[in-house]
Design a protein that fits this description.
The structure is a single chain. The chain is of the alpha+beta class. Helix content is 47%, strand content 21%. The protein has helices spanning 2-20, 61-70, 76-89, 99-115, and strands at residues 28-30, 33-35, 48-54, 91-98, 121-126. Strands 4-3-5 form a 3-stranded antiparallel β-sheet. Strands 1-2 form a two-stranded antiparallel sheet. Strand 1 (28-30) and strand 2 form a beta hairpin. The radius of gyration is 29 Å and the shape is rod-shaped. It starts with a helix and ends with a strand.
Length: 127
């Protein structure tokens, strides 16, 4: 029986050595656990989208500033700067986010504007 244990230990050492050398086909069984060689994976960063506020002649500037502060977490000075940019140029970037977050922000802005009975529009586009 001691010989069988020694043989099994030798097989395990050989398989570990093959796995360490990068033999992807080798698998080591220890009881119920299968140890596979590690593989490196690259994580791709998510695509980013610009959330853009569109100017209109009816939405109060104070409402836009409050939207920028509450939805986009901007400070008062930055929110005012963005609002003035939107007012003078017709549109402006409120923030840059991954797709799902940008989509949620667009929906939130439009829902808040609708509830306040303002025609403020918000869109998103790839950065």
């Amino acid at each position: 029986m001691s010989q069988a244990i020694d043989d099994r230990a030798q097989v395990n050492r050989n398989m570990r050595a093959r796995a360490a050398q990068g033999d992807s086909a080798s698998r080591i069984r220890e009881g119920q656990v299968v140890i596979e060689p590690k593989t490196k994976t690259k994580v791709k960063r998510p695509s980013l989208y610009k959330v853009i506020l569109l100017n209109d002649d009816y939405t109060p500037m104070e409402f836009v500033v409050e939207i920028l502060k509450s939805v986009f977490h901007k400070g008062h000075a930055e929110a005012t700067r963005i609002m003035l940019h939107v007012h003078h140029n017709g549109s402006g970037v409120a923030g840059i986010y991954p797709y799902e977050i940008a989509e949620t922000k667009v929906r939130t802005v439009e829902e808040l504007a609708r509830r306040a009975q303002h025609p403020l529009k918000c869109t998103m586009e790839p950065e």
